[in-house]
Structures are given as structure tokens and as C-alpha cells.
Amino acid sequence: MKLHDLDLSGNCYKARLFCALIGVDLEIVPVDFLGGAHKRPDFLTLNPFGEIPVLEDGDLVLRDSQAILVYLARKHDRDDWLPADAEGLARVTQWLSTAANDVARGPNDARLREKFGYDLDAERARAKAAGVLAILNDRLEARAWLELGRPTLADVACYPYVALAEEGGVSLTPYPAVLRWMDRIRALPGYVGMPGQRAGA
Questions:
Q1: pLDDT, tens digit, 9 for 90 and up, residues 150-200
Q2: pTM (2 decimals)?
Q3: Is residue 69 a contact partner of residue 14, using CB atoms and an 8 Å limit?
Q4: Domain segments of the chain: what residues?
Q5: Which CATH architecture fits 86-186?
Q6: Nearest C-alpha neighbor of 12 from the set 163, 200, 157
Q7: Radius of gyration over alpha carbons of the chain, in Å?
Q8: Beta-carbon contacts of residue 190 (< 8 Å; ≥ 6 apart)
Q9: CATH (residue range 2-75)
Q10: Cα–Cα distance, 132 to 161 (Å, whole number)
Q11: Which superkingdom is the protein from (predicted)?
């Protein structure tokens, strides 16, 4: 399997992290994002949206980090990370949507503004970040993991841009339960990090 990847992308990191946690090898194909390679015709044949990551597995080409996580879990029969039963599947999937929406428009947008100079509303992104981090903190006050009492794709999907929040000027100090959750993720066997993440306590 090939992952078209940028090491500074939290969405690409989701796939790298999950594969590391389940012991699956990936061939990493670096994309010169700053050089505009993601908008060139050869890349657009893989993903017409011109976004990373893209996963290639034989003839299959997949875009979108959430879809890639689902595919990897199913391909490798990892019901422990993505349950097959209706309730468990729905409980995990709702957090994939949170990662793609609230986390993306909060901590991620703040980071895009501060680190990469994207023309985004910093105040709005930080307000969105504060909202989603408060929800995560409340959720994690009473439980170790977001769902099902164990690490799942819910945690893998939400973790990267939370762990990168401080690069967007969003302090994680007010969210102690989130910090403890991050420590638990970092302690998982096979865990790999990425540049810019908040260091452990």
C-alpha cells in the first residue's frame, strides 16, 4: 500500500499512526505540497480535489483520511478498532464526523492560519477549538477513551489536530482530561508521533 503523504499533515498522520498501531507497513510517497504538487495533473488523477492523503492499494485509490481509516480497519479485520455491530460502528463513526468537522474547523484551522498563513478567521477557529476541546474534556473526564472503553478509530481520528492545537495558538492546559487521553494514546504499543505535537507531561 502507498500513502501519498505530507509529514506535517495531521490527516496524513492519521493513516500513518493507525498503521503503526496495528503493525501494517505503508510505502510513504512524499508530496511536495508547498511546491504545489497536489495541484498538478498527475496528482489530480488520483484525487481531483487536490488534497492529501491518498491511499493506493493495488487498483484501489482512496482519498479522505476518515475513509482511509475505515478501509484499513476493515481490510485488516480490526473490529477492535472499528466494530461491525450497528451500535458500535455508529458510536465510532460519529467521532470520525467530529474529526472532519469540529476538530478540522477548530484546532486545525487555527494551525493553518498560524503555521501556514492560510487566510482564515483566527478568532473563529480558536472559538471553535475551545468549544470542541471543552466537549472532549467533559467526555474524557469519566472515561479513558472516546467510545467503547478501548482505543478505537474515534481516538485515532480526533487525536492528531488536538495534539497539534498549540501550533495554532490554542492552549491545551485548560483541558486536563484531554491531556491525560493524549498520554494514553502516546503509550499505546506501536505509537509514532509527528512534528509539532505537544510533548508529553
A1: 999 999 999 999 999 999 999 999 999 999 999 999 999 999 998 777 665
A2: 0.94
A3: yes
A4: 2-75, 86-186
A5: Up-down Bundle (1.20)
A6: 157
A7: 16
A8: 20, 21, 22, 23
A9: 3.40.30.10
A10: 11
A11: Bacteria
